[in-house]
Write a structure and sequence with these properties.
alpha/beta, 722 residues, single chain
Length: 722
C-alpha cells in the first residue's frame, strides 16, 4: 500500500466550523504532518445546532472516503493549530460563540491569545503547505470585491495563492465578487487557473457561468493531477486554482440566487457592512431570502468539490508513486531491506566571507550567512534518498524551535527512526568559509548526538541485521559504534564509517571494533589521526602537492587494509584515492572476500618511509603478499575531481558526504568501481555549487550510470601497493 491520500478539511466559519477526520495532529505543541493529502474548507453560516455541522461534515467525509482519500479537518482550538478534529473538538468549535475567522494576518494574535477559530482559504493553504498537503478543497475562494478599485478590498486568498504552493479546488470565486478583476489579480500573482470539465467558462460559485473564461482548461482529474504535479515539480512558490462548476442539476437555482445576492448586497451597503464581515452577512442573508435554498446549494457545491478534489488527490498520489517507482528501478520490491544510516542532524549556519582575507580582532567581515540543514549522517541519508536508496535514518533532535523546519526540510527522507526529545536542543553548527570556499572555522553545539545511544539503536536491530549497508558517523557515542561493529562481526554486515572530523575519526580504532568495518572515508588529517591512535608512525606534516599527498595516503591506508575492504581517501580539489584490493584490474568495492588474512607492514618499512624524504614517500619494495592472497593485490587508484572554479564554489560542507553517498549508491546498485566513484564525483560537484550541503539537484537522473557514460573522464591512475 502506498501513502494515504489525506483530505484535510478546514473550517471557515461565522458561528461554527465543520469537517471531521480520522487523523489528528497539531502544528503547535505536537508536530504531526500528513502528506499526500487533500484539504477542504467549509463555509458554514449561522449554525445554532452543532449536530447539523457534524452531519454536514460526515456526509462529505463519506464522499471523500468513497473516492479513496482520507478526510481530516483544520481548526484552531485554544491557540493550537490542529490538522484533524475529533467529534468533541468539532462540536466545541461549532458551538463556540467566540470563534474567530483566521487568515494569514490573524495567526500570530489568535495563537498567542489562545483563541479558537476556523481558517479561511488563505489560512488553510498555509497550514496545508506546512503539513505537506498539496491539494485543498473549498466552496469558493475570495477575490476582488465589487468596487474594489475604490475600496482596495481584495481577499488575502488571492495573495496567498500567489505565494503558497498548494492547489486549491473550488467552485471558482464567490458570485458576490468582481470576477473579472479577480481573474486579473490572479494573473498578476502568477497563479495558474484552470476550469475543470467540458467548458473553459470560469464558474461563479452558485452559477456555472460568470461571463469570463479561465486561462486554461483540464478535462478530468488525471489532467488536473498532471497540471498540479508539474507546478509542484517546478518548485514555484505560487499555487494552482482548479475551478469546478456547480452540478448541472443545481444550475436552475443559480439565477434566483443571483437575484437574492443583488438584494443582499444592497442591504449590506445600506447597513455600512464592509471588510471581512461582508461575506458572513451575505451568506446568512442569502439563506433567509432563498428559504434555505442557497444553503442547500452551498452543501451541494461542497459535496461536488469534495468528490472532484478527492479524485484529483488520488490521481496525483498515483502519479507521484509511479514516478518514484520509475526513478528507483532497484526497489521493485518495496519491502526490500533498507540501508541504515546512524548519525547526526544539524541545523547549519554557513557564513561565507566576501573578501579573500578574513579579519580577526573582533572585526565584522562582509559576507553572506545562510541557514541550511546538515549533519554527516543526515547528509548521507539525504543524498542516498535522492539517489533512490531510501535509507532509514537513526538520529536525535530536540523538540525545539528547529524541529518543524528540520522535519519539513527532510520530508523526502525516512525520518521514522529519528528520536524527538523534550528539553533537548537540536544540534547546531556554524561554519565560517573563506571567499575561496574553504572551511576556516567551525563551531558546534552537538550534545544531543550523545542521545543516539546503544540502547536506542538496538531497538532497530532487525533493520540493522537485514540492511544491505550500514553507515555510521563519528558524531555518535563510542558505545553505539562498538555495538554496530559487534553486529557487523556477528552478521557479516557491510558497514561504512564516516570519520566526521579529526577529533572523532579514531573512535572505532580505540579497540578492535574497527576490524569489523568494511569502508572508511577519511581525509588525510583524519587518516593520520587514525594511524596515530593505532600506534603507527605518522608524518609530522601532511603534504599539499598531489603526488606527495597520494604517497602519504597510500602509506597511511596500508595497515588498515589488513581488515578493511576499502579506504576511500578524500583529497579535496585533487579528487579521491581508493585503496584496496584489485580484482580483475580494478579495486573491488563490493563486500565479499575482504576478510582474508592479509599481512601487516613491518615497523622497519614505516621507519624507512619516514626517513626516505621530507614528503614521507612510500618505499617501492613492499614485501610480497602471502600465498592465500596472491589473487588479490593491494592497489591505490586516483580519480581526479570534476574541475570547478573558485567562483562556482558556494558550500564545501557537504561535498565529501555527497561523494561518499554517491559511491555507496553505486555499490548498492551493483555498478562497477569506476562508475561508483564517478557517481560520487558528480554528486560532490553538484553540492559544491549549492547553498545546501546536499544539492537539491542530485537525483537519479543527474547522478546515474547514464550520466557517467555520457561524460568524458580522465583515466584513473593506479599504483600497486604490494
Amino acid at each position: 500500500m502506498g501513502p494515504p491520500r489525506w483530505l484535510c478539511q478546514d473550517s471557515s466559519l461565522c458561528a461554527g466550523g465543520s469537517g471531521g477526520g480520522q487523523s489528528r495532529g497539531s502544528l503547535g505543541k505536537h508536530h504531526h504532518y500528513t502528506r499526500h493529502g487533500l484539504s477542504s474548507e467549509f463555509e458554514v453560516v449561522d449554525v445554532d445546532v452543532p449536530n447539523s455541522v457534524k452531519f454536514m461534515a460526515r456526509e462529505v467525509e463519506e464522499i471523500v472516503r468513497a473516492n479513496g482519500a482520507v478526510p481530516a479537518t483544520v481548526g484552531i482550538l485554544r491557540g493550537q493549530i490542529h490538522v484533524g478534529l475529533t467529534d468533541e473538538e468539532l462540536e466545541f468549535l461549532a458551538s463556540s460563540k467566540n470563534a474567530v475567522k483566521v487568515s494569514r494576518r490573524d495567526f500570530p494574535f489568535v495563537l498567542s491569545q489562545g483563541l479558537s477559530g476556523g481558517t479561511t482559504v488563505s489560512g488553510t493553504m498555509i497550514v496545508a503547505h506546512k503539513a505537506g498537503i498539496p491539494v485543498f478543497v473549498t466552496g469558493g475562494i475570495g477575490g476582488v470585491h465589487r468596487h474594489g478599485e475604490n475600496t482596495l478590498d481584495v481577499s488575502a486568498d488571492l495573495t496567498e495563492l500567489g505565494r503558497t504552493p498548494v492547489a486549491v479546488v473550488s467552485a471558482g470565486a464567490k458570485s458576490i465578487l468582481d470576477i473579472g478583476r479577480t481573474l486579473e489579480y490572479l494573473e498578476t500573482q502568477g497563479v495558474c487557473v484552470a476550469a475543470f470539465g467540458e467548458s473553459r467558462e470560469f464558474p461563479a460559485f452558485f452559477s456555472r457561468q460568470s461571463g469570463f473564461q479561465a486561462p486554461y482548461h483540464v478535462q478530468d482529474e488525471e489532467e488536473a493531477a498532471k497540471l498540479i504535479d508539474s507546478a509542484l515539480g517546478l518548485g514555484l512558490s505560487s499555487g494552482v486554482l482548479i475551478a469546478v462548476p456547480c452540478p448541472q442539476e443545481r444550475a436552475a437555482q443559480g439565477q434566483a440566487i443571483e437575484e437574492a445576492i443583488q438584494q443582499a448586497l444592497s442591504q449590506a451597503r445600506s447597513k455600512g457592512i464592509t471588510g471581512k464581515d461582508v461575506t458572513p452577512f451575505l451568506l446568512q442573508k442569502l439563506t433567509e431570502l432563498t428559504d434555505g435554498k442557497s444553503l442547500d446549494s452551498n452543501l451541494a457545491l461542497i459535496q461536488n468539490n469534495a468528490r472532484v478534489g478527492s479524485c484529483i488527490a488520488v490521481a496525483l498520489n498515483k502519479l507521484q508513486k509511479a514516478r518514484r517507482k520509475r526513478s528507483q528501478p532497484g526497489q521493485k520490491d518495496m519491502t526490500a531491506p533498507q540501508p541504515v544510516v546512524i548519525g547526526g542532524i544539524n541545523v547549519d549556519f554557513i557564513a561565507k566571507a566576501q573578501n579573500p582575507e578574513i579579519l580577526g580582532g573582533g572585526q565584522t567581515n562582509a559576507g553572506r550567512v545562510r541557514r541550511t540543514f546538515g549533519g554527516v549522517g543526515r547528509n548521507l541519508a539525504d543524498c542516498l534518498s535522492r539517489l533512490g536508496q531510501a535509507p532509514l535514518l537513526l538520529s536525535a533532535v530536540g523538540k525545539d524551535e528547529h524541529l518543524e523546519s528540520v522535519l519539513h526540510y527532510c520530508h523526502h527522507m525516512d525520518m521514522s527512526g529519528v528520536l524527538q526529545l523534550e528539553g533537548e536542543s537540536t544540534a547546531t553548527y556554524c561554519a565560517v568559509i573563506s571567499s575561496a570556499g574553504e572551511l576556516s572555522l567551525g563551531l558546534g553545539d552537538m550534545d544531543i548526538h550523545q542521545q543516539i545511544t546503544e540502547q536506542y539503536v538496538s531497538q532497530f536491530k532487525e533493520n540493522l541485521c537485514q540492511a544491505p549497508l550500514v553507515c555510521i558517523d563519528g558524531n555518535v557515542p563510542l558505545s553505539t559504534i562498538q555495538y554496530v561493529c559487534q553486529l557487523a562481526r556477528e552478521h557479516q554486515l557491510a558497514v561504512c564509517y564516516e570519520p566526521t572530523d579529526e577529533n572523532k575519526a579514531s573512535k572505532p580504532f580505540l579497540s578492535d571494533s574497527w576490524k569489523a568495518l568494511t569502508y572508511i572515508s577519511p581525509n588525510l588529517q583524519e587518516l593520520r589521526a587514525i594511524n596515530r591512535t593505532l600506534g603507527n608512525p605518522v608524518p609530522a606534516e601532511l603534504p599539499s602537492r598531489l603526488e606527495d599527498a597520494v604517497q602519504a595516503a597510500v602509506a597511511l591506508a596500508c595497515p588498515l587494509l589488513a581488515h578493511l575492504q576499502c579506504v576511500v581517501v578524500t583529497l579535496g580539489a585533487h579528487g579521491v584515492l581508493l585503496c584496496g584490493r584489485s580484482l580483475g584490474g580494478s579495486i573491488s568495492l563490493h563486500p565479499g572476500a575482504h576478510k582474508q588474512p592479509f599481512f601487516a607492514i613491518p615497523a622497519w618499512i614505516w621507519h624507512q618511509a619516514h626517513q626516505a624524504s621530507p614528503a614521507w614517500a612510500i618505499p617501492t619494495d613492499f614485501p610480497s603478499l602471502p600465498p592465500q592472497a596472491a589473487a588479490a593485490r593491494l592497489c591505490a587508484a586516483h580519480y581526479p575531481a570534476i574541475p570547478i572554479s573558485r567562483e562556482e564554489i558556494v558550500n564545501v560542507s557537504g561535498a565529501g558526504d555527497s561523494l561518499m553517498a554517491g559511491i555507496l549508491a553505486g555499490v548498492l546498485a551493483k555498478h562497477d568501481t569506476g562508475t561508483c566513484v564517478r557517481m560520487g564525483l558528480l554528486a560532490a560537484s553538484l553540492s559544491l555549487r549549492s547553498y545546501e550541503p546536499i544539492s537539491p539537484e542530485i537525483s537519479t537522473s543527474s547522478v546515474s550510470l547514464e550520466q557517467v557514460k555520457s561524460r568524458s573522464w580522465p583515466e584513473a591512475k593506479v599504483w600497486k601497493m604490494d
